[in-house]
Amino acid sequence: MAKDMTLLWGSGSPPCWRVMIALEEKNLQGYNQKLFSFEKKEHKSKEVMAMNPRGQLPAFKHKDVVLNESYGACMYLANQFKSQGTKLIPDCPAEQAMMYQRMFEALTFGQKMGDVIYYTYKVPEGERHDSAVKRNREALTAEIKLWEGYLQKGSGSFLAGKTFSLADVVVYPSIAYIFRFGLCEERYPKLAAYYNTLKNRPSIKASWPPTWLDSQGQDTLKDI
Amino acid sequence: MAKDMTLLWGSGSPPCWRVMIALEEKNLQGYNQKLFSFEKKEHKSKEVMAMNPRGQLPAFKHKDVVLNESYGACMYLANQFKSQGTKLIPDCPAEQAMMYQRMFEALTFGQKMGDVIYYTYKVPEGERHDSAVKRNREALTAEIKLWEGYLQKGSGSFLAGKTFSLADVVVYPSIAYIFRFGLCEERYPKLAAYYNTLKNRPSIKASWPPTWLDSQGQDTLKDI
C-alpha cells in the first residue's frame, strides 16, 4: 500500500491521468488521493496551491518529495520503482530511444490539442480570430495524422514497440481525450484501435476518469 | 570519439544547445555535426527533413537510432552512458525528484519565453493585439521571478541541488537565451550569477553558440 504517497487530481485531465496510470502499473495502489473540480476552480484552492504553487493539477507527493509535473512524476516512479510492477523503460536502446521520441513529441501534440479545445478559454474574446481557429485546427489535423501514421508503421501494438512503456503512460490519456472530444474513429482506425484496446488494460480501466463514465463527451473535433 | 553519432543543429537554439551540452558532459566529443541556418530556413531543407520530418533542429542520430526531441536525446544519453563522464541523474530520491520537477517546469518557462520573443514570428499581422503582448510579458515576468526564487531558496549552486544534473543541461540554454535577449542582470541577481558562473563550465564553453561570439544580443526583454 502506497500510504506514503498523495495525489491531488482532477477528473479527465491528461496530466493527472498519466500519473495515475504510472502508479497503477507500478502496483502503487492505496495512495492518499483527493479529487478536485476544475469547473469549480478548485485547482486554485489553498489546499492545491499549498502543494503546487502554480495552482495546477496533479500535485503529487512521495514522503517529503513534491513532484507536480506529470512527466516528472511518471519518470520518477519508473526510476524509483524500477523492478516493481511493469518495467516502463525498455533496456533495448532502439526501443528506449523511440519511447523518449514519442513521449516528447507528445508535448507538441498536447499543445496543438489545447490550442483547439481550449481556444475560447485561453484567448480573450476581443482577441479571437477565425483565421487562428482554422490554422489551429489544420495544425491539429496534421499532428493527429502523424500519430495515426506512427501506429501504422510501428513494430508493435504500443507506441515504442512491442511492450507497454512510459510513452503509452503519458500519451494514452491525450489519445483518449481527442476521442472524448469527438474525433472520428473511422477516420483514424489505428488510433481508434489503440484507444479501444488499451481501454481494457487494468491500469487504465482502474484510473478511467470518473466524470466520463456517466456523461457524454463533446463534438469539438468531429470534423478533424 | 563519438563517430557513431550525428547532430544537425542551429546556433543559439536552446534545444540544440541542450543536446550539445549533454554530449560534452558524457565525453562524447568528435561526433559528426553540421550547422544549419535558421535565418536561411535551412531547418526546412531536404537534408534536415530526411532525419527530422518535423523540419526542426536538433536532429540527432546514434547508430540507427534517430532521436530528434532534445529532452529525449538528453535523457537517452544520460541513460545509455550512465557511468561515462558526468553522472547526470542523481541517485538521491529528493534530488532526482527536484531534477525532474525543474526539467519539466522549464517547458512552461520555454513556452512563455517563446510567446514573448517569437510573438511577431508566430502571430500573423492581422491577429496581433497589444493586450496579448502585455499579458505574455506579464506571464514571462512572473515565470522568471519564480526561477529567481528557486535559485535563492535552493540548497546549492545548481537547479536540483549540489551537483550539476540534467536539469542544468536542459534549462541553462534558456537562461542564457533570456540574457542574450536583454534581461537585466541587476534585477535578477541569482539568475545572473547562475548564468555567469556556468559560462565557464567546459561543456558549456565548448558548445557556446558560435553566432553569439561576434554579435550583440537584442533588448527585447530589457524591461522584464
TrEMBL record, chains A, B:
Q: Which domain of life is it from?
A: Eukaryota
- GO BP: glutathione metabolic process; L-phenylalanine catabolic process
- What range(s) does the GST N-terminal domain occupy? 3-85
Query: Can you cite an annotated GO cellular component?
Result: mitochondrion
One of the Pfam families matching this protein, by short name = GST_C_3
PROSITE patterns the record matches: GST_CTER (PS50405), GST_NTER (PS50404)
InterPro entries per record: Glutathione-S-Trfase_C-like, Glutathione-S-Trfase_C_sf, Glutathione_S-Trfase, Glutathione_S-Trfase_N, GST_C, Thioredoxin-like_sf
Which residues does the UniProt record annotate as the domain GST C-terminal? Answer: 92-221
Which terms does the record give in the GO molecular function aspect? glutathione transferase activity; maleylacetoacetate isomerase activity
> Which parts of the chain span the membrane according to its record?
none
Kindly provide the name given to this protein in its UniProt entry. Answer: Glutathione S-transferase
Q: Which organism is it from?
A: Zoarces viviparus (Viviparous eelpout)
